[in-house]
Amino acid sequence: MNRLGLLGGMSWQSTATYYRRLNESVQSRVGGQASAPATIHSVEFGEIEQLQQSGDWPAQGRILAEAAAGLERSGVGAVALATNTLHLVSDQITAALSVPFIDLIDVVAAAVGGYDRVGLLATGYTMTSDLYPKRLAPNGTDVLVPDAAGRAAVHEIIYRELVHGVATEPSREIYRGVMADLVERGAQAIVLACTEIGLLVGGDDATVPVLDTTELHCAVLTDYLVTGALS
Prior knowledge:
By secondary structure, this protein is α/β, with parallel strands linked by helices. The protein folds into 2 domains: 115 residues, Rossmann fold (3-Layer(aba) Sandwich); 106 residues, Rossmann fold (3-Layer(aba) Sandwich), CATH 3.40.50.1860. The strands form 2 sheets. It has a 4-stranded parallel beta sheet with strand order 5-4-6-7.
């Protein structure tokens, strides 16, 4: 199989989800005692989160670019980032690499190409950026985000609860309400664009298809691990 470099730690809950799903997928595909050959660089999320709050995205990009270069030196054949939000600095990461970067946003863009309009749940940083609208627009997909109150609630629950592995019924109800509002505004599907959100809600919590970006990404990463395919 092919060794994958995984940039993680943003949060460690996200990385643990990726690691588990990749191993489960490889085991299912290959059988026997097979597991995912992955090298993980887990950053210190406390440092990253402080830089997010201060708006210093170039500094986050430098941290991840250095980590990605280290993964390449270790012998991995491709690198992926186990988080949505930090794809805001993916240009800095790819500039540090000569091996392929398996971009999560590209994977999601391909998966939602059949929808005219999708709702997006993510961190506040992602929801207020052009990351998804810009990358999904070429496929003809518009992106809806919650209103200001909904964005604040979604973001707060991610950082107050989900990054600590906490999922509560009141928070689930808040997310269900936000998703219902997006559907009422015309969303044909809901994109869970933050790995930790899958700890709280899933396909049974909305009246339209729910697309978990982690599941989509891990399916493509499994193809790379098992076959070397990059798309």
